[in-house]
Design a protein that fits this description.
It is found in: Secreted, Cell wall. One of its GO terms (molecular function) is metal ion binding. Pathway: Glycan metabolism; pectin degradation; 2-dehydro-3-deoxy-D-gluconate from pectin: step 2/5. It is built from eight helices and 33 strands. It is of the alpha/beta class and 451 residues long. Strand 12 and strand 13 form a beta hairpin. Helix 1 crosses helix 3. The longest helix has 21 residues.
């Protein structure tokens, strides 16, 4: 165990890299210099080793098979609608009201008017690389009744911080609509679901979420915006542990060395650092049905060129809307395998998808609407020379380009693999993105009605 951790620590220590002018805080060497003293103790060493083992189990040796399976489900749904065999987008309920479930994840649960009595059904609906995530399905329901977040060590029962630091699985819901200002980063334990359905739950004007060295987390149906930096100090991270923490990053959601994470129907904007960052060997992650606006560097997948542990990073981005006043990094990737499926890119100012260190990026059935700026039409950005990146596997399949947008592809053609033309169902899903992402972001779900 000690040997594994020392290798992990050594890898971090050698991270001294050149960064972009607008670099994420995690891309700065000073970030790691400040962080290491706080995680280099017996407690966090043990969590790091446990998390590494879980991440290795969550890793999929053949990522193409996983991504093709999700592609087939979407294509089959569209083909079914076109041929009249079935209509999976609109389902008539008993009272005659239509249920608009326009993609296969939503179709799994949204048309059930009794969703509030069967909340844990949601855990059966995740697809993509995070498909094995069950969150708190095996645990009891925990109801958040108190929006306060004051004492960081002696936590008040009924608060969100008290809920996410309990040992064992919990399905966390909210008694009513509330705005929660987190005084410090919200550090979660494994096997948790945060389920905002049935209430308007807003995390704003304080710190964000930290998913560090844990597994099996679902965050669903909440709004996160105006996230700031927490000053650090003594913070509880489990029932039986609290410790000193450095300043938080200012991310909306930070996923650090964790696996089996699903973020769904979340609305996010304007965080001090990134909206969602995924770093340090995190894997088996799906980000779906979410709405992102008003941000510069939206998503960072892999923080440093010097940490090749992110080669195991596998992330699905599906049915999300990248909307108004976004500038870049949707996402920006290092290493790993990223499947970008049926997302709607309606705004960017610099570029949409970027990367370094030879990540595999499969862009499939997305809609890209370029800005009017003639110098920002390219969707992609590589932080290296063409002589190097031309062999990276960046492929665009059935994407739709509007207003002059273009995707610069690289790498060998995907023949004899899951994405070869002979294996693709004859559909152009990119033309259906407006429908598939129609209900992105947090939903207004009411009990006894379909969402």
């Amino acid at each position: 165990m000690a040997k594994m951790y020392h290798l992990f620590l050594l890898t971090i220590l050698v991270v001294i890299i050149p960064t972009l002018v607008h670099a994420n805080v995690k891309e700065q060497p000073l970030y790691w210099d400040n962080l290491l003293p706080f995680i280099n103790d017996t407690y966090w060493r043990g969590k790091a080793v446990t998390a590494q083992k879980a991440n290795s189990i969550a890793y999929t040796p053949d990522p193409y098979a996983v991504s093709e399976n999700m592609t087939s489900v979407v294509s089959e749904m569209i083909i079914g609608e076109n041929t009249g065999r079935r209509n999976l987008a609109v389902k008539k309920l008993k009272k005659g009201h239509p249920c608009m479930a326009t993609n296969p994840i939503d179709r799994c649960w949204r048309c059930d008017p009794n969703w509030a009595k069967n909340r844990k059904k949601l855990a059966d609906c995740v697809q993509g690389f995070g498909r094995k995530t069950t969150g708190g399905k095996a645990g009891r329901i925990y109801v958040v009744t108190d929006p306060s977040d004051n004492d960081m060590v002696n936590l008040r029962p009924g608060t969100l911080r008290h809920a996410v630091t309990r040992n064992g699985p919990l399905w966390i819901i909210f008694a009513r609509s509330m705005v929660i200002k987190l005084n410090q980063e919200l550090i979660m334990t494994s096997d948790k679901t945060i389920d905002g359905r049935g209430a308007n739950v807003i995390i704003a004007r304080g710190a964000g979420f930290t998913i560090q060295f844990v597994k099996n987390v679902i965050i669903h149906g909440i709004k996160i915006f105006d996230i700031t930096v927490g000053n650090g100090g003594l913070i509880r991270d489990a029932e039986n542990h609290f410790g000193q923490r450095t300043r938080s990053d200012g991310d909306g959601i930070s996923i650090f060395g964790s696996s089996n994470v699903w973020i769904d129907h979340v609305s996010m904007r304007n965080c001090r650092d990134g909206l969602i960052d995924v770093i340090m060997g995190s894997t088996a992650i799906t980000i779906s049905n979410s709405h992102f606006t008003d941000h510069n560097e939206a998503m960072l997948f892999g923080a440093t060129d010097g940490y090749d542990g992110d080669k195991k990073m596998q992330i699905t981005l599906a049915f999300n809307h990248f909307g108004k006043r976004l500038i870049q990094r949707m996402p920006r990737c290092r290493y790993g395998f990223i499947h970008v499926l049926n997302n709607d890119y309606t705004h960017w100012e610099m570029y949409a998808i970027g990367g370094s260190q030879n990540p595999t990026i499969i862009s499939e059935g997305n809609r890209f609407i370029a800005p009017n700026n003639p110098h920002a039409k390219e969707i992609t950005k590589r932080d290296t020379s063409e002589g190097e990146w031309k062999n990276w596997q960046w492929r665009s399949i059935n994407d739709v380009y509007l207003n002059g947008a273009f995707f610069r592809q690289g790498g060998p053609l995907l023949t004899n693999r899951a994405f070869s033309r002979k294996d693709m169902i004859k559909a152009r899903p990119g033309t259906y993105v407006g429908r598939l992402t129609r209900f992105s972001g947090s939903l207004r779900c009411r009990t006894r009605n379909a969402c």
